[in-house]
Amino acid sequence: MYQSTHSAVASSAWESVFQDRRGLNQLGFPRHVRQHPAAQPGRPGTEGGVTRHLPDGEQTTIFDAAMRYADERVPLLVIAGKEYGSGSSRDWAAKGTALLGVKAVLAESYERIRRSNLIGLGVLPLQFQPGQTRESLGLTGKEIYTVRGLTGTEAEGLPREVTVIADGPAGTIRFTARVRIDIPTEADYYCHGGILPYALRTLLPS
Question: 17 and 26 in contact (C-beta within 8 Å)?
Fold first, then answer.
């Protein structure tokens, strides 16, 4: 009986420590972008969570680059491939993305719950048109992106497509992307900046 109780207490204590560490921004936030070793597309010779700060081109970690962009008040856009968000830790997946200063994700397709969680954190999920990819459009990640046509309110609904303009060293690339806000409730969340601001504004007297 003593052993069973001791085991339950120990298990509960370890679970509490695990959850506390997981909810601590100072620990979870930097780890959000520490990837397993993998080649970086468009960056030969680099692996894992590294990138280049633009326009100076300095190689640094994704976390440090994001902090510099935040100081410079530069909003960020993520360019992704298929099934964006698959296999990730869901409690930190969208939260970490939003904390990095990402305002939109442009992907070929989405893992279902990740797409919903992005909206809940106020991040806009955009999707390439069928047959289009980063490679087919010639996007390198060195461009400055402008999203046009994102108008409307939670009552009116958001557009199904927007125009994306990418200004880069090789010129301007213009294309349309799908807005993956699929139901009216998601439009409400996004237009309020996420599910938490929406809930607070709903509960507080006008």
Answer: no
